[in-house]
Each structure stands twice: as C-alpha cells, then as structure tokens.
Specification:
Neuraminidase, 9% helix
C-alpha cells in the first residue's frame, strides 16, 4: 500500500514539473502592451440560450454554478430547485439532467460544480464543505472530502477535474489543494503558504495535470506552480499607457484542448474608477495574443456565481447574464 502511494506521489510530481515547463511556452504575456492605447468599444457576449427564472420544469430558480462536459454540453446547477439542467450547444435545447433533492444537500448551497471526462458530475456543498459525486444519469454515488469523520476541506473555493478524471478541490481557508481519485480517495495535497494568492487552476496537455495559482501584488500579475509558489513561472508588471490604469484583478480562466491559455483582467484608474474588462487568449503555437474588451457584468442576485467564466472550446469563453426574469448563457469569440 505504501509503495502504491509513493508511486502516485512521484507521478503527480512529474505532472507538476512537466506542466510548469509547458506553461512557460503557453503564456507569453506582456500586460503593458496588451492594454496600451485601447480604443475599441466593449462587446457584449453572444446569446447561446435564455432560461426563464422560476420553479419547476426547465426553469431555474437560483442558478449558482455552471460547467462544460467533454462534448461541450453546458451543465447548470439550480441551487434553489435542487436540480441540474443540461444545455445542448448544438441545437440549443434544454433538458433536466437530474434532481439532487434526496442527496442531503440543502437548498442554495452549491457553490461550484465540475464534470469529469469519464462523465461523473461533482457538486460542491458550501454548507458542509463536502463534494457530492453523481453519475451522468444523476445517481448519487457518494461524498468526497471526509474520512473517518474528519473533513479534508475546511472551506471549498473551487472544484475541477483534470485530464485523468481526478477531482481537484481548492481550500481557501487552509490554503491547500486536495486531489481525489475516481474512487473518492485522497491521493495528494499541496499546501499554499501564502495567504494573498488568487487561486487559479490550469490544466496542461498530454495528460499532465497541474494546479497553478496566480497572484496580484504591486500591479504585477504572477503565475506560479502550486508546488513551488516562491518561483513564478511568469511574472509581468502592468504599465499601460492609457488613463494611468492598473490591474485590479487578473487570473487564468483555463486552457482549451490545444493548450491555448485564456485570461480575465480588470483595470481601474488611479482613483479606483473602472477603466476596462478584458478577455485575452494566448496562442501557444503562434506565440501571440488576441484580446477582447468586454462589457462589465452586473449580478444583483442573492446567490452569486463564483466561477463567472469557463472555457467552452477553442476561441470561445462561456459566461452568463441574469436578472429577475431570466438566466442567459453567453459566449465570447476570439
């Protein structure tokens, strides 16, 4: 048993080292050039589908998370009605995937969700800080994150799945990253000693799975391997030429299947006034970037969606808009 654990540990170390080298090829960022002299107007996302707000049927009462499966279907968790809806992006149809009302999860408590390549769906319960595992048909398989009455995660921030269908959970209270296999067993932990990091997960290619964190300090955006946070893989200071803008927030959204990286950035002026929001795609092969200035999002709902952007496919980032009458999934094209 100890030998198998050591083999798994060494395998994860190889994954992280490989992905650390990979990201240096992917993210060729010059923040100062990207945001210098910007004059293009902000664009609004293209509507994919509009879902009415409310209870019952194919409506959503309190959408709290969304994700994308390997077939580019969109899954939406309705915490208010305790159900998961599926949106087929090809024909833009909505169907009820399953109800989780009998799983023990309370109303309004799902803070994030993920789906593995093997088809399992995971829902993060923010009340208990446990993760519930479901089959693609909605069968409740079990609970991840507890062993012998002891919880592994103190405060769930995000959950993800990697290329090997492992589950990755970010603990924002203890500043650690936990990895679970498909048998729901804890296989590894990475502790983050720095409290001022913005957690951001990035999936590498060629079955190399890596967790990255990003930080924003003194107008400098840095990305580092979670295994070695003191040595940034990438670090760049922003010095834009327009309106004395500074980076107020910047993080890696994720990668597409070709290992192109997608980043969300928010700029303000020296008085803290909003200047611009951007989505940026960094092309791995061309060593270049494409930027899209987007309109700011306003979400006045009682329950906020934590993960506001998800990579849908190459050149496409998924997001949302919502008000009292509807929940709208939108996409931004590069």
């Amino acid at each position: 048993m100890r030998k198998n654990y050591n083999n798994k540990k060494r395998r994860y170390q190889r994954y992280f080292l490989f992905a650390a080298a990979l990201i240096s090829l992917i993210i060729l960022i010059n923040i100062g050039l990207i945001y210098a002299g910007e004059s293009k107007p902000a664009v609004k996302g293209e509507l994919i589908i509009k879902i009415d707000r409310g209870e019952g049927g194919l409506k959503v009462l309190e959408p709290s998370a969304f994700t994308v499966d390997s077939s580019e279907n969109i899954l939406v968790c309705d915490s208010g009605s305790q159900k998961v809806l599926m949106i087929n992006t090809s024909n833009k149809s909505v169907s009820k995937s399953f109800s989780y009302a009998d799983s023990g999860i309370g109303r309004d408590y799902i803070s994030d969700m993920a789906v593995s390549k093997s088809g399992f769906i995971y829902l993060a319960d923010a009340e208990t800080n446990l993760i519930h595992k479901f089959s693609g048909e909605g069968k409740h398989i079990g609970v991840v994150g507890s062993e012998k009455g002891e919880k592994h995660i103190k405060k769930i921030k995000y959950i993800f799945t990697d290329n090997s269908s492992n589950l990755v959970a970010i603990d924002s209270l203890e500043h650690k990253i936990s990895v679970f296999d498909e048998d729901m067993k804890l296989t590894g932990e990475i502790r983050i000693p720095l409290s001022n990091k913005i957690f951001s997960y990035v999936r590498g290619g060629d079955d190399s799975n890596c967790v990255y964190i990003s930080s924003l300090k003194d107008n400098t955006f840095s990305v580092m391997n979670a295994k070695d946070p003191d040595k940034p893989v990438y670090s760049e200071k922003c010095s834009p030429e327009h309106k004395d803008a500074i980076i107020a927030d910047c993080y890696v959204i994720g990668f597409d299947a070709r290992n192109n990286a997608y980043v969300k950035a928010y700029l303000v002026d020296k008085n803290g006034k909003e200047v611009a929001h951007y989505l940026v795609k960094f092309d791995r092969e061309k060593k270049s970037y494409i930027k899209v200035r987007i309109a700011p999002q306003a979400d006045k709902s009682r329950i906020k969606i934590l993960k506001k952007f998800v990579v849908l496919s190459e050149d496409t980032v998924l997001s949302y808009e919502k008000d009292e009458t509807s929940f709208r999934l939108i996409k931004y094209k590069f």
